[in-house]
Each structure stands twice: as structure tokens, then as C-alpha cells.
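Hey all, quick one. A colleague (J.T.) asked me to put the protoporphyrin IX containing FE job into the tracker so the inputs and the C-alpha cells live in one place instead of scattered across chat threads. No bug as far as I know, just bookkeeping. Sequence used:
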Amino acid sequence: MRLIAVLSLTPFDAGLKGGWKSILSWGEGMSDNARRLPDRPTSPHLTVWRWHATMLSSILHRASGVSLYAGALILAAWAICLAVGPECYAGYMALLGGPIGKIVLLGLTAAIFYHTANGIRHLVWDAGKAFDPKFSDLTAIVVIAFTVAATAATWIIAGMTGGL
Amino acid sequence: MTSYRTPRSRAAGLGSAKHGVSTWIAERVTSVALVPLALWAVFAALRVAPMGYEGAVAWLHHPLNLTFSLLFAGLSFYHMGMGMAVIIEDYIHRRSTLVTLLLLNAFVWFGFGVATIVALLKVALATSVGVAL
Ligand code: HEM
């Protein structure tokens, strides 16, 4: 019972004899080897997982991928409007340049920088490298910092070159 | 790496459908190609944004701009189609919903992908500027 409570990584086991605080004394008098938790994969359920940079980076990769999916459809509409003619194009560019369009494009700028930089992290992992948790945390923070800096730089350049 | 498979499950051939490798590789190959293309796309968007209609049409007439536009669009739609299929498979477990969404995704990425490429080609290959569709 206690072992189950410990394994489930949650102290809220009502059936635990002596209350959940008895988890704290679990393992007393046991050999080091017996106390060791078995090496088994554990599902990263959001309710029991401590937040850390690699987890955030993983969620952001999926979120940015979905955003870019929408972004590709926005690009499709741009190309189609350009093919349809000047009125369609002018109207569409006015929509993109309006307040809602600007917010969406700002989000897409961040998404493409994040997804690209973090995609490189994924490719390095796919090559079987850089799995160390500490180093992964570090590269996650580097990717997020790069995203913020590159997004800001892009919009500053857009403002200076008349793209806004 | 430790194997978590039981000998029986291995013998019964349970587990992977044994045809995912090509998709996995395609997803990585498109990723590698999209790294420079995505950066180019941001650069291109900055260039084209202030140009207006005529400027954008003239820009697409340049063969390099057309080539990179087609590559970026084509690989993006292909890559995002595979990525979205994984997301759908991750979260949807009801068979009918799963099949419906996978079909919808296939139609969207392929349909809009083709439409984008046709539109880009039409603009780039038109001889005179401003011909209405
Ligand atoms: C620019 C257009 C792009 C679009 C529309 C796009 C879209 C997507 C989508 C929808 C997914 C699925 C997300 C998930 O499974 O959580 C995905 C996954 C992925 N993308 Fe992209 N992406 C783009 C560019 C890139 C670039 C430039 C890279 C660079 C390396 C990249 C690398 C990856 C990788 C490695 C995955 C798989 C992640 C995993 O293994 O879970 N993508 N992408």
C-alpha cells in the first residue's frame, strides 16, 4: 500500500495506514537496494508532475506546431488572394495589418521561431544525443530566450522597413 | 536500452504496426529542410509586407523567390499533415472520431497545399501583372 502511494507520486492515498505522512518514514530500516524505486517509465500526468523547463518546452512545441498549422492556412489564403487579384489582396493585407491580424502574426512569429529552434533540439535527440536532464533544461531555456529575442527583432525590423 | 516487451508479446507480433518508419523519416527530413526555409520565410514576409499587390507579384516572378516559396509551402503542408495526424492519434480514441479527423486533416493539408502551390504558380507564371482569375 505504501509502496503504491509512493509510486503514484501522490500523497493523497486515503487508504494509507497512519495517514499520508507515513510516506515520510517509508523505507526506514530497509537496505539501500530495497528502498530504491524500480526503474519503470512513469506517465507525465499533469496533475502529479512537477513543472520544469523540458516539460514546458514539450508542450510549447505541440502548441506552436498547431499554431503553424493555422499559419499555413493563413499563408494559403494570402497566396490565393494574390492570385485572385488586387482588390482581394488589398483587403486581405488590410485584415492582416489590422489589430487582430497583428496579434495573430505576432503569435505566428513567435511560433515559427520557437518551433524551428526547438525542432533542432528534437533532431539532436533523434540522433541519440543531449538527453541529460540538466542540459535539456538549459537548452529549453536557451530556445525560449531565442524565441523572445528573435520575435522582438523581427517586429522592430518590420516597423523600421514599413512592414507593419 | 531495456526492453519492456514480454517474450510472448514479441512472438505474437503485438505492438508497432511495422510501417511507421517511413513516416518517421519523412517527418525528420522535412524538419531538416524546413529549418533554413522557415528562417527564409520570415525574411521573405518582412520583404513582401510593405510591397503592395504589384510588388508582391513582381517578387514572385523572381525564380529564386518562387522556388523557395514552393519548397516552403509544400514541405510545410506535408510536415504539418504528418504532425497533426500524430496529435489526433494521441488524443482521440473513439474509432469513428479518429477516422473522421484523420480524413479531415488529410483533405485540409493536401487540399490547401495544392491550392497554395497552384496560386503561387499562377501569379509567378502570368506574363502580365493584374490578370484577374
Ligand atoms: C514552418 C512550418 C511548420 C509547421 C506548419 C509545423 C507543424 C508541426 C506540427 C503540427 C507538428 C506536430 C506537433 C506535435 O506532434 O506535438 C510538428 C512536429 C514537429 N516539428 Fe514542425 N512544423 C513546421 C516547421 C518545423 C521546423 C522548421 C522544424 C525544425 C526542425 C520542425 C520540427 C518538428 C519536429 C521534430 C516535430 C516532431 C516533434 C515530436 O517528435 O514530437 N517543424 N510540426
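Adding what we noticed when we looked at it: The mean pLDDT of chain B is 91. Chain B has one domain: 19-124.
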